[in-house]
Design a protein that fits this description.
alpha+beta, five-stranded mixed barrel, 6 helices, two-stranded antiparallel sheet, OB fold (Dihydrolipoamide Acetyltransferase, E2P), single chain, 249 residues
Length: 249
């Protein structure tokens, strides 16, 4: 199935649900992840494809990468750049991600600076093998261009347990939450969170449609591999001065 990339305002994806059982030919899909075995009790034993009912293996692999971008390869993004990235109107679980790697350049190393409006604890999801303890789940960073803007204008960045276990054990909720309201810069991998785009076809075992978040785009910086805090004025930091890598002694 050919995917037509158009900018679709979140929350205005249409209410016509007949596509789920339509006669459209379903494209070849990667099989969904299997249920998680009881032997997986922490993130160290969770494979990068994840596990759990109807998990998307290829999306999970994109979320679970742990390699660090080469500094010279990192592209600076603005909020306008992020919002301007095209995203498909529909996306099936297990769909080939080659189209978004070409059109949106998923996997590009990027950096974005903005105000940390809110830090949200993640929950059990297939990329993290349905584990639910904080050490094994993501942190969602809600970033705004200006603090007086609403969450619907935000861009999401996510700290993953694998990156936390790879040299950033202090990137836990109680520490990162202290940065709310601060001007920060995140570096990591550009990724389209297709789990929040409605499916064109439901898998036989899928009982509901994917739903979106209150944000301006489903393109994320995920995972975050570098977190910096502005220690001078915002204008100085925008000019490249005053950044300090975040760490807790």
């Amino acid at each position: 199935m050919k995917i037509n990339f158009t900018l679709v305002p979140l929350g205005v994806l249409g209410l016509n649900l007949c596509f789920a059982g339509s006669a459209l030919a379903q494209p070849p899909l990667t099989p969904p992840t299997a249920d998680c075995p009881a032997t997986i009790d922490d993130i160290a034993h969770c494979p990068d494809i994840g596990c759990g009912e109807n998990g998307d293996r290829e999306l999970n692999k994109a979320k679970n990468r742990t390699d660090i971008p080469t500094a010279s390869d990192v592209k600076t993004k603005t909020f306008a750049n992020m919002r301007g990235l095209a995203q498909p109107a529909r996306w099936d679980t297990g769909q080939d991600r080659a189209t978004i790697r070409t059109a949106g350049k998923e996997g590009t190393p990027v950096e974005l600076m903005g105000f940390l409006f809110k830090v949200k604890k993640g929950g059990a999801e297939s990329c993290n093998c349905d584990l639910s303890r904080g050490v094994n789940t993501d942190l969602h960073l809600v970033l705004l261009k200006d603090m007086d803007q609403g969450e619907a204008t935000s861009v999401t960045a996510e700290i993953t347990p694998r990156i936390r276990a790879n040299g950033h054990s202090d990137w836990i909720f109680k520490n990162v939450n202290d940065l709310e309201g601060e001007f920060i810069r995140v570096t990591g991998w550009l990724m389209l969170d297709t789990k929040h785009i409605r499916q064109a076809h439901l898998l036989p075992t899928e009982k509901r449609l994917n739903t979106g978040f209150a944000r301006s785009t489903n393109w994320e910086i995920h995972p975050v591999t570098k977190l910096e805090v502005c220690e001078k004025s915002v204008s100085a930091c925008k000019a490249g001065q005053g950044w300090k890598e975040f760490s807790v002694p």
